[in-house]
């Protein structure tokens, strides 16, 4: 049985962050996360009404272990207080709006896991605003496009997570597209073992991945990307500004990887975020790789006890169909 935080064991953290005079009156565990716990702590008194607490306890991570991570792999699991704080500082330094950190501690003296207490951005997600307040959402979407421009123009000659690499003078030895190809071939094998439609087309999908990778030319400079930026990972503050969350995977990489994910998650609204100059051959390879990732990942998550099972199954089924649709038609 997984053990989650509650009002009692979060109260001390919030008092340390905001002052001894503040009292936590209720705690809600927010749904949707698979690698960390996210809690909204509501407070008494006239000042800050609520804060968010992130907990990186082992019981909050639903992903099955895949063994020791390769430190050179930009797609290695990115979750933890160090990754969060480094990403938060990096983005804040660029002028990209992220939640303010009120307290962070990895000593395990206050709490049995690494944690951070952060600003509760009260305007809701951009995803929800698309439905409830389209005009406000349109303004935030324009602000998001500007943020992405700032991030993608921040360049590095090597790629990888900002907590490990940041800017450097050395050039990464293995090109991005080869990393993506290797990962996609692994996802294809994994998905074929769990999904009959992928298994039936495994050979054709493998050939297609290799063909697309061969078409991609060399590159030795990379932009700063969020990595999983959907409208559910964008909050909107009281001033209508977009605020990025779930930022632990921040890394330098081909910006085409970001744009493929944006296209998948923003659908017809992606036009406001698109930009010229993207490499169409990278986009083709990364789209198929992303689809296979969104089959293998959710099915792997379902090997465990993740609670949102129907949703994850739906993600896998949808992306299996979309992956097959990317094969050349006979």
Radius of gyration: 20 Å
Helix content: 40-55%
Tell me the series of helices and strands, N- to C-terminal.
HEEEHEEHHEEHHHEEEEHHH
Question: Distance N terminus to C terminus?
Answer: 51 Å
**Count of DSSP E strands?**
11
Main sheet: which strands, in order across?
Answer: 1-2-3-5-4
Largest sheet at a glance? 5 strands, antiparallel
Which structural class do the helices and strands define? alpha+beta
Average pLDDT value? 90
CATH class of the largest domain: Alpha Beta
* Helix segment tally: 10
- The percentage of residues in β strands lies in 5-15%
Tally the structural domains: 2
CATH architect. name of the largest domain = Alpha-Beta Complex
Which structural traits does this protein have?
single chain, 330 residues, alpha+beta, Phosphorylase Kinase, domain 1, Aminoglycoside 3'-phosphotransferase, Chain: A, domain 2, five-stranded antiparallel sheet, four-stranded antiparallel sheet, 10 helices, 11 strands, globular
Can you give a write-up of this model?
By secondary structure, this protein is of the alpha+beta class. It has ten helices and eleven strands. It folds into two domains: 7-119, 2-Layer Sandwich (Phosphorylase Kinase, domain 1), CATH 3.30.200; 126-325, Aminoglycoside phosphotransferase (APH), C-terminal lobe (Aminoglycoside 3'-phosphotransferase, Chain: A, domain 2). It has helices at residues 7-18, 81-93, 126-132, 134-153, 176-192, 196-200, 202-214, 255-266, 280-301, 309-325; strands at 24-29, 37-43, 50-55, 101-105, 115-119, 155-156, 160-161, 222-225, 234-236, 242-244, 251-253. The strands form three sheets. The chain has a five-stranded antiparallel sheet with strand order 1-2-3-5-4. Strand 2 (37-43) and strand 3 (50-55) form a beta hairpin. Helix 3 packs antiparallel against helix 4 (134-153), helix 5 runs antiparallel to helix 7 and helix 5 runs parallel beside helix 9 (280-301). The longest helix has 22 residues, at 280-301. It starts with 6 loop residues before the first helix and ends in a 5-residue tail after the last helix.
């Amino acid at each position: 049985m997984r053990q989650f935080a509650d009002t009692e064991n979060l109260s001390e953290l919030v008092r340390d962050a905001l002052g001894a005079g503040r009292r936590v009156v209720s705690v809600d565990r927010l749904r949707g996360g698979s690698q960390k716990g996210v809690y909204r702590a509501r407070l008494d008194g006239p000042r800050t009404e609520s804060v968010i607490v992130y907990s990186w306890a082992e019981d909050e991570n639903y992903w099955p272990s895949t063994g020791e991570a390769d430190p050179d792999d930009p797609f290695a699991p990115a979750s933890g207080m160090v990754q969060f704080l480094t990403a938060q500082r990096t983005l804040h330094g660029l002028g990209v709006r992220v939640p303010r950190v009120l307290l962070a501690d990895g000593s395990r003296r206050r709490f049995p896991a690494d944690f951070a207490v952060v600003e509760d951005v009260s305007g809701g997600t951009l995803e929800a605003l698309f439905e409830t307040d389209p005009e406000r959402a349109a303004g935030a979407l324009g602000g998001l496009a500007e943020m992405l421009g700032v991030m993608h123009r921040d360049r590095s000659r090597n790629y990888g997570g900002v907590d490990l690499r940041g800017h450097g003078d050395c050039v990464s030895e293995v090109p991005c597209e080869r990393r993506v190809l290797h990962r996609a071939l692994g996802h294809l094998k994994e998905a074929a073992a769990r999904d009959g439609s992928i298994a039936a087309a495994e050979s054709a999908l493998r050939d297609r991945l290799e063909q697309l990778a061969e078409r991609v030319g060399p590159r030795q400079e990379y932009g700063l990307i969020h990595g999983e930026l959907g409208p559910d990972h964008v909050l909107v503050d009281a001033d209508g500004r977009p605020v990025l969350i779930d930022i632990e995977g921040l890394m330098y990489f081909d910006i085409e990887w970001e744009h493929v994910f944006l296209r998948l998650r923003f659908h017809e609204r992606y036009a406001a975020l698109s930009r010229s100059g993207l490499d169409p051959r990278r986009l083709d390879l990364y789209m198929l790789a992303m689809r296979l990732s969104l089959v293998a990942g959710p099915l792997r998550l379902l090997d465990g006890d993740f609670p949102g099972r129907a949703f994850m199954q739906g993600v896998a089924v949808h992306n299996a169909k979309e992956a097959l649709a990317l094969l050349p038609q006979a």
